[in-house]
Amino acid sequence: MITAEQLKDIKERTEALNRYLDIEGKKIQVEEEQLRTQAPGFWDNQKAAETQMKKVKGLQQWISGYNEVKTLADEVQLAFDFYKDELVTEEEVDDAYAKAIAAVEALELKNMLREEADQMDCVLKINSGAGGTESQDWASMLMRMYLHYAETHGYKATIANLQEGDEAGIKTCTIEISGDYAYGYLKGENGVHRLVRVSPYNAQGKRMTSFASVFVTPLVDDTIEVNIEPARMSWDTFRSGGAGGQNVNKVESGVRLRYQYKDPYTGEEEEILIENTETRDQPKNRENALRLLRSMLYDKELQHRMAEQAKVEAGKKKIEWGSQIRSYVFDDRRVKDHRTNFQTSDVNGVMDGKIDGFIKAYLMEFAGSGE
Fold first, then answer.
1. Neighbours of 313 (CB within 10 A)
2. Could you tell me if 79 and 73 are in contact, meaning their C-beta atoms sit under 8 angstroms apart?
3. Rounded CA gap, 273 and 260, in Å?
């Protein structure tokens, strides 16, 4: 049975969310933004109209999210009062509390996602590390983990490019994940993921260590300005398809985009290579490859801003992009994040996409650090 202190805590956190989210201000803002959608010729520019509708929807989601929390918190108070009159059981009070606290924590977590890019869709790329079949198998396990995560959260996941391993697994894959705050929730997955297990590919049954890197970038739309210099671009085409037979594509629909990127801040140059085999339509694949390039260039600008922020606020913990972030130790039944020290023994659950605990721990420690 919950205590009066727990009841007081949930009411205070609900009131705090009302203030943090400025719910009254958002209600006024929704009315103003909805008026714009009623202007004559609103749909003449479809992309601008869709952006405006997305803005209205985003505001409405914050309001409805808070309303749900408020309703559940009120129900806890009601159940608590009814229990005194013996109208409900202890279990019913605790059940109402469990629902309310879960809703409060979910909204508190979403409130940590305040950066411009957080609300965007994202591109998640997985590359196998050195080690051949072992690391390629590990990369395919990570791909499955993220696809399951996307599915359970109602996100749409599209594999934009996939290169299978020589014997098993994958060498690399690119997944586009679409849905509310997809980048905000998944940005903390950026880095090197380490697997320790008794290898099924090793006859001696030795314990092996494998690595795979995960890169997460926001998927930008036409409302974000990104400077692409055409002179720095070059294209190749190739046949895309599966293992053979009817799956082989007889035309060169796959596209390979090379972009000679020059860092505007350091002057350093690097080649960005993007391959897209998402469809059998070459022009469509070109369009998708360009969109991925815009996303990568936007992400580079974001990383520069983060680096500058880290210099200014040297006392705060730095987010190390590209470093080893998490270990998955199968025989010890342990998955541990090295940045937050969050860990779990539910290895099977994690590999089935249950990574919310890691995401929450990361966001609570690092998100909003630039505020």
1. 12
2. no
3. 9
State both tokens at 53: 């509708």
- Whole-angstrom Cα distance, residue 125 to residue 115? 21
Closest listed residue to residue 147, CA positions, set 119, 125, 177, 192 = 177
> Phi and psi at residue 320, in whole multiples of 5°?
-90, 100
Name the pTM for this structure.
0.77
- Position 1, amino acid: M
Task: Report the run of H or E that residue 235 belongs to, with start and end.
Answer: strand 233-238
State how far the Cα of 270 lies from the Cα of 261, in Å rounded to an integer: 5
116 band by pLDDT with thresholds 50, 70 and 90: confident
pLDDT single digits (tens) 276-285? 988 889 999 9
pLDDT of residue 311: 66
d(CA 341, CA 335): 10
Residue 367, pLDDT above cutoff 80: no
